[in-house]
Amino acid sequence: MTKPHAVPPESTPPTVPQLDVRAAEPPAADPPSTGTGFADRPPGYPSALVWLRAGILRDWRGVLGAFVATWFYLPVALLLAFWGGLSFGIVGLFAGGLGADDQVPQVLRDAPLIGSLLESFLSRSGGVLGGVAGFAVGFLVGFVSVLVLPWIGGGGPIPVVTGLIGTVAAAALIGVLYTLYRVLLEPRLLVVSGARQPSRREAARLRPVLEDCARRLGLPSVPRLLMEDDPVLSNARTYARHVVVTTAVLTEPDDEISALFSHELVHWRTGDEITSAFVRGVGLPLTLAHALPAWLMRTFPHPGTNFVVFLFFWPVLLTMRYVVLPLHARDVRAAEYRADLGAVLSGHVEAMRRILERRLSFETGRSGWDEAVCATHPPHELRLDALERATVTGAPTGVAEPVTVERLFHQPGPVGTRRTWLLVGVLALVACAGTGGLGVVQWAFFRPQAAVEGFFSALADRDSEAALGHLTDQGAGTDTTLLDRLLRGEGYQPPTDVEVSSLERDGDKATATVAYRLADARQTATLTLERDKESTAGLFHGWRLTGGPIALNSSIADPGVRLNGVELPVATEGPPLVLLPGVYTATGPSNALSETPTATVVADPGQSAATLQLTPVLKPAAVEAVDAQVRAWLDECAKQTVAAPPGCPFRYYGGSAQKVTWKILEYPKLALELTGPASAQVTTPSETRGRVQVSGTTTYFGTSSPFTDDNALTVTGVATADGDAVTFRPASDD
């Protein structure tokens, strides 16, 4: 038996023209040999490649069915469609039964007779209709989702096309490898399945018949003959390199054995097993999934077993039965009609007719696939009808084409013509050039190194938009206008002398070690990258640096703070301030009291935050101005002739005093501490206190006496910037 493919049986047999049977040639003196060339291939093929090609490319329908059913997950689609239909059907059943009346327009509901008829109809059938509609919708949604969802979100039509091409290539490769596996390991596989070498008695009985049939069919070689111990069922199966017959065949008449061998030799010569093996290989996952339930039903033939197996494996069984096998069966049927003509050509038509009339099949299979394929053989009556039409005599000369070896075994020809090979070469050259060009583009512009180099190049060009485009997180709410002004402002220094010293990639993630110069120092950073999920032009997947811009932590929230000459918003306004890697020049506000020295903000690549710390300092002129104001104030206080000058930092605490005079012996040395950009606390340290002398007379019991006293002098207060001037306010004014 050849390993046919599955295709739906046709209601009528293919038209077989009336054929003349050319007389068989007399037996040759030398017996045919066993196989030729690679893997004992049949004769008539210039090379093993032609033999494999002829079988692989013959049944495109079976290959297409196996490919679609397996690689588009039809069993999964059926399973999801069933459960989706069941779920939607239950929802529709209740929704239709409970809400059908509400869907009737009020006008129809109020109409005589019609309204009552509609309400009665919907109340009794609304749930059923809703359930049927829900099941149909759920089934369709579940089925289509499995077929469509894997191809959605690929970034355009090109990834879909390339994915489909890759799937086809994978299926074809698996099919070819499986075919080679079946051909090369066929002897071992048959031995494992129970076949054995014929004994000397069996060989003496069957070998001459097989060789005689081969000579009559014009075959210079025969396949290897193996036996299977089955004394009840007369069975024969053809493989790529072997013909396996059961021991029950030994009891059959010689002419029926000859008809049987003629049939199997045609299967062997036309490479039907190669075709079947390739179809199985293309759908290998589905074939393996189908093997288990088929083995269970074959090993335990019971209705209960069949029901349980079907309950668990029905998606696979239905897919194989109604998709793969029907498409494959067309080639199988054609192969059976063709193989029957082998008995016509070898002169054993009557024996073949008796076999077909007496038996349901002489080619039962051992595996579930074989049995399924054998079940698609044409009905025996149609095969008998084809034999009768092929052996009708008396046809007018030239009307019917005779059955000949040349017609039965078409010459496969070379692997390809010169023009074909030239076209294949040109296409291969174009494909290689195109693939090479795409690879060069991918290597130059879309590898991880290119993303790192592009990011630092954008910083060197002061292009904030391009730099953000190389980051996975571009900062939601980032003021891109401000960021662009910061990069283009004076004082910005991008990283220079950038060098990617190492890069390690793990799937869609990569880690790069980058050396660079920043703030006149050589530094190193470790950056992580991720591969883009979306493609460019539908072909190229680039890389991005993980993370986003660097947050700026600033302790200054006052107006007037600038980076690279660009004034920053106060901390409570707008989105958070972020920076791109580089060195920034920061300046703060200045007034009559204080000034802010220029500071440097370093934003290192790979860091998450940078710090801006501006510290205002007193202006020397402001200190001198405060000191002058304090001295003038003290001088005014010293001019007063009272014991306690109001608002002054000194007083006399003795008894009643007259003719009081004050004299500043030593002015205090003040200390100023900024409490803000425009205010400072004025104090007098203990070690720099001044001295004031008070003199006068005191009256005690009517007697006046002069006095002189020295006291320490301290001054406290607040100095503030008032426009272009500094104002001192003594603490005693509070």
UniProtKB/TrEMBL annotation:
Residues 202-389 form the Peptidase M48 domain. The chain crosses the membrane at residues 71-95, 128-152, 158-181, 307-324, 421-445. The keyword Protease applies. Residues 1-41 are annotated as: Disordered. InterPro entries: HtpX_protease (IPR050083), Peptidase_M48 (IPR001915). Keywords: Cell membrane, Hydrolase, Membrane, Metal-binding, Metalloprotease, Protease, Transmembrane, Transmembrane helix, Zinc. GO terms for molecular function: metal ion binding; metalloendopeptidase activity. GO terms for biological process: proteolysis. Residues 1-16 have a biased composition (Pro residues). It holds the Pfam family Peptidase_M48. Its cofactor is Zn(2+). PANTHER family: PROTEASE HTPX, PROTEASE HTPX HOMOLOG. This is Zn-dependent protease with chaperone function. It comes from Micromonospora chokoriensis.
